[in-house]
Amino acid sequence: MGQMSQQQYAIQNNITFHGAGSMAEAIVRGLIARSVVLPSNIMMLNRSNTTRLEELQKLYQVRTSNDESAKVGILQSSSVIVLAMKPKDAAAALQQLGPLLTEDQLIVSVIAGLSINTMQRLLGRNQPIARTMPNTSSSIGLGATGISFSTEVTEDQQRIVTTLFEAVGTITIIEEQNMDLLTGISGSGPAYIYYMMEAMIAAGVRGGLTPEQCTELTVQTVLGAARMVQQTGEAPGALRAKVTSPNGSTQAAISVLDEGNFFEDVIAAVNRCSERSREMGAALEEEI
């Protein structure tokens, strides 16, 4: 990869990650692995953790810094700034960032609950902003990311954002008002699947299989089911019907789930997650 010319990279802009946590690393890993951005065009900043920055620099050959005096110049020279700090640190960071920016610099936020309007208010300017909601599967390149754009974002900047997140999975562009609902489906969705996997594994262990056997069977079953939907293009309901013979063992299992109101409970869980996301976002903005 080191011998490739810069012209072969999809994004040639300088990108600064303001925050160097797990989500920032997941995105950087995807960008580097897919040769989307030249590593030397990526800068990662954090407040004080030098060991963390040294680890990232060694792993990905990106540039890093936690020198407060150097950060000003770094941020001023970056075409794209990815806000990846903790929500509690966001307000101060945005207020400090605002005076440094020019109108053509793009802000990409992966901070949950912080609206575009609030970010622009903290910046003190109507900056181009892309608000995103990735999920944890981004860390292995199989993420699902929702993206909303402020009206100031240009077509070229939209292309940059979509390219960034396609490096770690799939993207869905939505109106910002739907971001909380997306959080309930894909943002927190992996946890629902993990919870069901826990139950399937527990059933097998209680029945006499080893934990290793149950885990392998469950993981492959979930992986295969997801791939069937993806590769066949058929609706999950249609695929379920194909393996659910009348009065058969699968139908008996589905009947138990129906008796427990499984379908409506999942819908209620998604809705409650969305509602809680709105509550947390409102609380965060009240603190700011």
Describe the protein's topology.
Layout: E1 15-18, H1 22-33, E2 42-45, H2 50-60, E3 63-65, H3 68-76, E4 80-83, H4 87-97, E5 106-109, H5 116-123, E6 129-133, E7 143-149, H6 155-166, E8 169-173, H7 179-187, H8 189-207, H9 211-232, H10 236-242, H11 249-259, H12 262-287
Parallel strand pairs: 1-2, 1-4, 2-3, 4-5, 5-6, 7-8
Antiparallel strand pairs: 6-7
EC number: 1.5.1.2
Organism: Paenibacillus macquariensis
Catalytic activity: L-proline + NAD(+) = (S)-1-pyrroline-5-carboxylate + NADH + 2 H(+); L-proline + NADP(+) = (S)-1-pyrroline-5-carboxylate + NADPH + 2 H(+)
User: Separation of termini?
Assistant: 43 Å
Contiguous low-pLDDT stretches (5 residues minimum) are 1-7
Shape: elongated
Number of strands: 8
What percentage of residues falls in helices of 4 or more residues?
Answer: 40-55%
Strand content: 5-15%
- Main sheet, how many strands, which sense, barrel? 8 strands, mixed
Q: Count up the helices.
A: 12
Give the spatial strand order of the biggest sheet: 3-2-1-4-5-6-7-8
- Radius of gyration in whole Å, from Cα? 22 Å
Q: Can you write the helix and strand succession as a string?
A: EHEHEHEHEHEEHEHHHHHH
